Amino acid sequence: MNETLTLGIETSCDETAAAVLRGGRELLSNVISTQIPLHRKFGGVVPEIASRKHIVNIMPVIDEAITKAGVDLRDINQIAVTKGPGLAGALLVGISAAKSLAYALKVPLIAVNHLEGHIFANFLSAPELEPPFLSLVVSGGHTALIKMTDYNRFELLGQSRDDAAGEAFDKIARVMGLPYPGGPEIDKLAKLGDPDAITFPHPKVTGYDFSFSGLKSAVLNYLNTAQMKDETINAADVAASFQKTVVDTLADKTLAAANEFKLDKIVLAGGVAANSSLEKTLRTACQRRGLEFFYPSKILCTDNAAMIACRGYYQKTFADSTLNAVPNLGL
Fold first, then answer.
1. Which of 98, 129, 153, 285 is 20 to 30 A removed from 46 (C-alpha atoms)?
2. What backbone phi and psi angles, to 5 degrees, belong to 3?
3. Got the DSSP string for 88-148?
4. Is 130-296 CATH 3.30.420.40?
5. pTM of the shown model
6. pLDDT tens, 277-313?
7. pLDDT higher than threshold 60 for residue 117
């Protein structure tokens, strides 16, 4: 049994997180301190506030992760930290802590791509999962279809050309007066509505790229027109119809890619993976086609350090003291 202990650190946005992983898949602790209540009054994440809160939270969160894991800080064999993409100031807090600890403990430092981390969350929820597979990564800032042929070999098949799916959810929720974060609120409201009540246009983008700005505009136009005409809006129907359009678009492209590249495993990842309609639609479609479907537990869908530790464990490259944040890091 591999006894390597990896300390994972994640501060890319508004969650301060730390986790301890034994080997590649045995999670000993996973601590997340969220800033959602702090940013809710602003309707979204304020970068400067997020950075300052990370500074306050980072060491207590790391201490709690070490304590909950039942190990000593000196037992840690390597440290994995998110280097991007994300908010520059927020990323730098985690990177500074990771570099300092790696230097003090004289252990390797691993710089992790946040998007790859989301994919690796599935290895913690499904220990039997092995590449190759197709992954749909859907978060607040990213929507991407990725073919993963090995632990360190990724091929980007398509991504969002404008708004990510999660960003579209949040923007529509804000216009409808729903609290931040908007995605879970849309999902909750949609359960009370009719997904076929309103026909919104499906984004038409060739290949495996995505675009949700046109759909977002269509929903805004529908709401504005109804308001100008003083018509009553069924908010639940709007939420359900909008969500169905997004989910169908994501599912259709994912299944088409799986068919073209002859992949029999589909992996869902990212914060929007927690959307109940997306999970149900993909699961049902995979069952009909005889495909395996993998989906992380709710706590591993949103930003967390367990996924960063897992990605770090399988990564074969290390960073040095010059490591810096890369806010716009691609796959």
1. 98
2. -100, 15
3. HHHHHHHHHHHHHHHHHHT--EEEEEHHHHHHHHHHHH-TT--S-EEEEEE-SS-EEEEEE
4. yes
5. 0.94
6. 999 999 999 999 999 999 999 999 999 999 999 999 9
7. yes
